[in-house]
């Protein structure tokens, strides 16, 4: 019998500042029910799926910032989602802002978790590639303050065995998808599927001349290349639409190991996108062109881990 996994990407439309956690969780619950009615066993929700994308605002009062964070997961507000998923035997990925006390220190991360079909959290990831800036830029139409509100993730890129067929699942968050290193590390750990959520502004606040169509093109380019170059399934779920007056692009997509988009959203609202994934499809890619053991040449890749930025070094 072939190994298959029916997944659903549960795209969220806008979540406004005034929206309560309870109302958001009710939307997630509705989408999980829809995914269940389609026979999905895995649901992928977006990055920071419980609140508006708050890093767009400069806030000086830490108590105000902390209202967007979760000190507990599941929390009383999110418990209905966990309970429903467990009762249906569905696993899920959920992004949220994590507030934690570790070794007497308060820490804040942009986090995602993988929850198994039995309701247990099997894996946690803390975003590594934090985009944006840390200082207030009053002249900018909005901020992108992930570097102010979050620490760089400290858990690395890991994979977990999930579901009855022990499918090897990895996770990352938003901006991570633009970096090939993200997927290659998980590919080297045997990932068969990588899931992620994102909040991507339709305009590039750092390059206002970049047209919106290029934003979606770069999103697709990144996840399609990652899927093909590692022979894996990629599920990427957006928070989309005009949120508190600021536009986030949609483009939720399920990408096959061939690099082809096999299912995608066509709205910027709450929308469930599903696909029945053949987990053997990537095998021929992982055994031929991207047979890592046979063809990789790490002795020529050392700079990738030794150097962060560019230093011009012509050989002539
Ligand atoms: N949330 C997130 O990581 N968004 C970034 C926007 C980059 S532009 C500041 C992304 O890569 O989509």
UniProtKB/TrEMBL annotation:
It comes from the Bacteria. Gene3D superfamilies: Carbon-nitrogen hydrolase (3.60.110.10). Pfam families: CN_hydrolase. Residues 5-279 form the CN hydrolase domain. The keyword Lipoprotein does not apply. GO terms for molecular function: hydrolase activity, acting on carbon-nitrogen (but not peptide) bonds, in linear amides. The lineage of its organism: Bacteria, Pseudomonadati, Pseudomonadota, Alphaproteobacteria, Hyphomicrobiales. It comes from Reyranella soli. This is N-carbamoyl-D-amino-acid hydrolase. InterPro entries: Aliph_Amidase/BUP, C-N_Hydrolase, C-N_Hydrolase_sf. Keywords: Hydrolase.
């Amino acid at each position: 019998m072939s190994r298959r996994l029916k997944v659903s990407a549960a795209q969220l439309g806008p979540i406004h500042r005034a929206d309560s956690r309870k109302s958001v969780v009710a939307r997630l619950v509705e989408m999980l029910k829809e995914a269940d009615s389609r026979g999905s066993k895995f649901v992928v929700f977006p990055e920071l799926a419980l609140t508006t994308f708050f890093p767009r605002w400069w806030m000086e009062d830490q108590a105000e910032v902390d209202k967007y964070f979760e000190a507990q997961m599941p929390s009383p507000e999110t418990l209905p989602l966990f309970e429903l998923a467990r009762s249906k035997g569905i696993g899920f990925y959920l992004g949220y802002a994590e507030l934690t006390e570790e070794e007497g220190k308060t820490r804040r991360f942009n986090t995602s978790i993988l929850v198994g079909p039995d309701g247990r959290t099997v894996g946690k990831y803390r975003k590594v590639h934090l985009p944006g800036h840390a200082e207030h830029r009053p002249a900018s139409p909005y901020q992108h303050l992930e570097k102010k509100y979050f620490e760089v993730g400290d858990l690395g890129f890991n994979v977990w065995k999930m579901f009855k067929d022990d499918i090897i699942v990895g996770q990352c968050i938003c901006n991570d998808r633009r970096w090939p290193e993200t997927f290659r590390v998980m590919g080297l750990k045997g990932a068969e599927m990588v899931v992620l959520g994102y909040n991507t502004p339709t305009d590039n606040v750092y390059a206002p001349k970049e047209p919106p169509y290029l934003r979606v093109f770069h999103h697709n380019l990144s996840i399609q290349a990652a899927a093909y170059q590692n022979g894996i399934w990629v599920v990427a779920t957006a928070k989309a639409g005009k949120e508190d007056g600021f536009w986030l692009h949609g483009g939720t997509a399920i990408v096959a190991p061939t690099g082809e988009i096999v299912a995608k959203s066509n709205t910027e609202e709450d929308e469930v996108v599903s696909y029945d994934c053949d987990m053997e499809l990537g095998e021929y890619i992982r055994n031929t062109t991207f047979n890592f053991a046979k063809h990789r040449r790490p002795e020529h890749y050392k700079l990738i881990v030794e150097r962060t930025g560019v230093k011009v070094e012509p050989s002539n």
